[in-house]
Amino acid sequence: MNLLTLFCGFVRNDESAYYAFKSGLPYRTIPHDPVFRFRAGVGGMVGCSAGGDMNPTNIEYLDFTWNPIAMRCTPVSEGCKHCWHIRRAKMLTRNTKISLNARLGYSGSAPVLMTDRLDDPLKRKKPARIGVQFMGDLGHDDIDYEWIDDIFDVMTAAKQHTFIILTKRPDSLLKWHNETITLGGGDYLPNVYLGISAENQPTLDERLRYLLQIPAAKRFVSLEPMLGPVDLTCIEYLSGQLNTLTGKLSLLCKPNIFINRKLDWVIVGGLSLPGGKIQAPKSGFIDNILRDCDNAGVPIFLKDNAQYPIERKEFPG
Hints:
eight-stranded mixed sheet, 17 strands
């Protein structure tokens, strides 16, 4: 714990920050606060945000977003071209009502863990669906793994909520998971959904093979923006062809087997452009996804910007 974290503790009238600072013990071992350990990360900074609480959101399948890290993400594929997060981060960089450290994080400097936002989900007792770090990507290379540990500590404690993590970098989260000793006493948390965002078949194929290796209560894919046709029923996996909706693995010259590595939910959306313009996926692309999801009994959520004539807004059971 550093002096900045101690200062955040005093701002929050948090005695445990003071005792942790004096004793040298990890923050969450202090009796006054059984949940958190706040650290200064190797690749970033720890700071305060000048206030917080979770943000109500227009993302249709969420109630709130929770963004404890101030950061500006970096593009990794075509689906990042018109990212709303970048536009929002530029606005926050100019917002003098938030701390200088946070503004630096949104400007593209080293990410900042805003410790006063970490406990926001615990303040809300009514169950909610919460998007985790949608202002950025929890799998970004600049995010310290210990910060991810801190975030998972909160999700472990906030059992009343369903947390939804969406990443374009599942390879990084797989590496983090392999280095994590425990997740709430098991391989995964029952209230955390883990998903990838993919815009076409190549990005789906690349990211799914990492996602399917990470244990999760629910795995999902967000095809938003859907820029090309996608087949979820035939992915190269383990030297065979995997139907990611059923878990059926077809191996050459061997009987088909079913493995516990499949998708539990599919989201489809279009491309939202500046000025309120929308580029919807071709209806034929969505027809195929709907047919395959219905055949496998996998729930599907069609966002409004998919502009599909049939409304389907389903959630995993």
